[in-house]
Amino acid sequence: MAKRIGVCKNYDECSKADEKVKQEVDKSAPFVCEECGKPLTEVPTTTGGDGGGKKVAAIVAGVAVLGCAGYFGYSAMSGDKPAKPPKPDTTVVAQPEPQKPEPKPETPAAEVASITDALASGTLQDNGNGTGRISTPFGNYEGDLKDGKAEGNGTFRFFKSCLISDKDEQKRVGESGDYVSGQFSANRLVSGKWYGKDGTQKGALIIGQTGL
């Protein structure tokens, strides 16, 4: 027979009301408290036989949802954030200065001039015979002259670097302040001695008229 379930709300006067006891009453009988006789408040019945189990399952599911929401909320507030991309490197790298080509060494005068060349373009200081002087940009000759050329004993003092003789196989060069003294023939030193500006002998010169 179908039954109705109810609770008494006659608190303080009914022990079943105070203890919230659920009372089952046949649908054909009066729906009143069996202790105090006051009307019962009907409690809806659940279907499926295990209403309590379903309620527990619902509560557990709710707790799980709240737990997940709390975890993700905490993660968002904590340091578990997407890593920011690194800032681009703005370090300025010094570029090496382009190397300048090394200047070509100047061609010394000695490569284009010798005593013979200098005397050939020099200036006579007398009539060109006997003894006298020939002035040149590379130095001055003083000594014997014949037909405007150095011929005989003489001395050539260097103002600039200059080949002593274009026939000299050693290609020796007189520097500023040096001088050579010896025998000349047709503006060419044939033999003699070479001195530095301090008077120290730097070498003996035996060239010959043909350079042999």
Tags for this entry?
alpha+beta, three-stranded antiparallel β-sheet, 212 residues, rod-shaped
Mean pLDDT: 79
Supply Rg. 66 Å
By DSSP (H or I, 4+ residues per run), the number of helices equals 3
How helical, in percent, are the residues?
Answer: 10-25%
Span of the ends, CA to CA: 156 Å
What is the tally of beta strands?
12
Query: Which assembly state applies to the chains in this document?
Result: single chain
Q: List SSEs in N-to-C order.
A: EHEEHHEEEEEEEEE
Question: Tell me about the biggest sheet?
Answer: 7 strands, antiparallel
The order of strands across the largest sheet is: 4-5-6-7-10-11-12
- Give unreliable regions as ranges: 48-53
Give the amount of beta strand, in percent: 25-35%
Q: Any idea what the shape is? A: rod-shaped
SS content category: alpha+beta
